[in-house]
């Protein structure tokens, strides 16, 4: 795992989550989404409208978007990005509860009969680690579409 000084339980899971106790995961992710979005909008505005020459070029590009009625395309991209937030919140809450931090993406356990030499290593399906694995797979399935 990440930090060598981190205290671990008997199975190697950290005893403490790297997420802060407050704010809650939905608030944390929502605020960070707003902050990053505001920074992106500010950069886009400054780079497009800082000088009069850039302003007229940006206005010409916007008129092309308007002429071809492409505003809906940009609105659609924004909506898709915004609707990814609940998936991230679900995964963040599961990651906080399971105490499994980045870069670890799944929790595995050895399956097989007690005392057998070899067993399969499969993803944990029970408890908070199973919930975390399902949330992580949901995000990956979404990204693979």
What layout of secondary structure does this protein have?
Blueprint: H1 25-49, H2 52-67, H3 71-83, H4 85-98, E1 108-111, E2 120-123, H5 127-144
Antiparallel strand pairs: 1-2
Helix pairs in contact: 1-4, 4-5
Can you offer a commentary on this structure?
The chain is mainly alpha-helical and 145 residues long. It has one domain (25-144). Helices cover 59% and strands 6% of the residues. It has five helices and two strands. It is elongated, with a radius of gyration of 22 Å. The protein starts with 24 loop residues before the first helix and ends with a helix. Keywords: Membrane, Transmembrane, Transmembrane helix. The chain crosses the membrane at residues 27-51, 72-94.
Give me some keywords for this one.
145 residues; mainly alpha; two-stranded antiparallel sheet; 59% helix
Could you give a quick summary of the protein structure above?
The protein has helices at residues 25-49, 52-67, 71-83, 85-98, 127-144, and strands at 108-111, 120-123. By secondary structure, the protein is mainly alpha-helical.
Q: Please describe the biggest sheet, giving its number of strands, its sense, and whether it closes into a barrel.
A: 2 strands, antiparallel
* Biggest sheet: strand arrangement: 1-2
Distinct helical segment count: 5
In round numbers, the mean pLDDT is 88
Q: What is the succession of H and E elements?
A: HHHHEEH
- What's the alpha carbon Rg, rounded to whole Å? 22 Å
State the distance separating the first and last CA atoms: 29 Å
Number of strands: 2
Structural class: mainly alpha
β content, as a range?
5-15%
Uncertain stretches of 5 or more adjacent residues: none
From the spread of the alpha carbons, the general shape counts as elongated
Residues in helices, as a percent range: 55-70%
Number of structural units classed as domains: 1
InterPro entries: MAPEG-like_dom_sf
Keywords: Membrane, Transmembrane, Transmembrane helix
Transmembrane segments: 27-51, 72-94
């Amino acid at each position: 795992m990440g930090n060598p000084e981190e205290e671990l339980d008997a199975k190697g899971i950290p005893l403490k989550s790297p997420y802060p106790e407050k704010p809650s995961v939905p608030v944390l992710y929502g605020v960070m989404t707003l902050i990053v979005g505001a920074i992106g909008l500010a950069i886009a505005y400054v780079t497009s409208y800082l000088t009069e020459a850039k302003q007229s070029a940006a206005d010409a590009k916007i008129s092309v978007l308007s002429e071809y009625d492409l505003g809906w395309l940009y609105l659609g991209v924004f909506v898709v990005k915004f609707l990814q937030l609940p998936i991230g919140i679900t995964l963040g809450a599961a990651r906080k509860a399971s105490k499994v931090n980045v870069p670890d993406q799944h929790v595995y356990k050895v399956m097989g009969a007690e005392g057998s030499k070899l067993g399969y290593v499969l993803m944990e399906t029970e408890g908070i680690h199973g919930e975390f694995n399902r949330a992580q797979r949901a995000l990956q399935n979404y990204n693979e579409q």
